[in-house]
């Protein structure tokens, strides 16, 4: 069970630190700070739990590994359950924290770090999420493969997530992670829940294409790198 516990803790940390930055510090740190919070959370988890679970922290990432042939079905299910649970619990903790704001906190009026689109169309948001997730999985699958980035894989993956957020926050809220979108949406209300489908379908589509490309040899061999003892 260790790897599932690690995925729970890792996804909890990603959502807790990333969404907390959006909720409490966005005006102070700006979009760059938000992007760094998500990306650096991935880096931290990659070097702490990566040797145990691979630090997927994201159902789309696990799906990409599964489609590429680098994950078994039972592990896919276990990872996705652990990741979604971690995201939901982290969101619940943040919900309790935000309610302690002086004068109260109106989630309906101020939001809850949920993903969503408004300035751009659903088509634009869907396309960004799908393409960005494909590129994210391309980096992850290649960086963690034999002959890939080795000990620098965690840094490469985390910095890629920073770039994705910088590129797409204005378009889609920049999720590329169904669990990250699910947790806050459950507390944000009906509007967020009505848009949640996009943040499940688009990332899973992008991850599936990346996994199939790796499996077919289009983007190189998919042998995983040796894990530390």
TrEMBL record:
InterPro entries: Aquaporin-like, Aquaporin_transptr, MIP, MIP_CS
Record-given protein name: Putative water channel protein
A GO molecular-function descriptor: channel activity
Superkingdom per UniProt: Bacteria
Keyword Zinc carried by entry: no
Biological source species: Mesorhizobium amorphae CCNWGS0123
Entry membrane topology: Multi-pass membrane protein
Keywords: Membrane, Transmembrane, Transmembrane helix, Transport
Pfam families: MIP (PF00230)
Any one GO cellular component localisation term in the record: membrane
Transmembrane portions of the chain: 7-25, 31-55, 76-97, 117-140, 152-176, 196-214
Alphabetical list of Gene3D superfamilies matching this protein: Glycerol uptake facilitator protein
Keyword Transmembrane attributed: yes
PROSITE patterns for this protein: MIP, PROKAR_LIPOPROTEIN
SUPFAM superfamilies: Aquaporin-like (SSF81338)
Similarity comment: Belongs to the MIP/aquaporin (TC 1.A.8) family.
Location of this chain's protein in the cell: Membrane
């Amino acid at each position: 069970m260790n790897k599932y516990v690690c995925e729970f803790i890792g996804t909890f940390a990603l959502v807790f630190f990333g969404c907390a930055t959006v909720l409490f510090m966005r005006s102070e740190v700006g979009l760059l700070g938000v992007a760094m919070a998500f990306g650096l959370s991935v880096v931290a988890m990659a070097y702490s739990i990566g040797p145990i679970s691979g630090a997927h922290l994201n159902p789309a990432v696990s799906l990409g590994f599964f489609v590429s042939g680098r994950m078994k079905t039972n592990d896919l299910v276990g990872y996705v359950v652990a990741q979604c649970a971690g995201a939901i619990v982290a969101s619940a903790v943040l919900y309790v924290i935000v309610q302690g704001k002086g004068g109260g906190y109106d989630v309906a009026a101020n939001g809850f770090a949920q993903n969503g689109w408004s300035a751009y169309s659903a088509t634009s948001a869907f396309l960004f999420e799908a393409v960005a997730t494909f590129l994210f999985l391309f980096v992850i699958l290649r960086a963690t493969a034999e002959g890939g980035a080795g000990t620098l894989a965690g840094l490469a993956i985390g910095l890629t997530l920073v770039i994705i957020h910088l590129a797409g926050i204005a378009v889609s809220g920049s999720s590329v992670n169904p669990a990250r979108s699910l947790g806050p949406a459950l507390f944000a209300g009906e509007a967020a829940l009505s848009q949640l489908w996009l943040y499940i379908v688009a990332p899973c589509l992008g991850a599936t294409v990346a996994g199939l490309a790796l499996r077919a040899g289009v983007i190189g061999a998919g042998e995983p790198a040796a894990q530390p003892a």
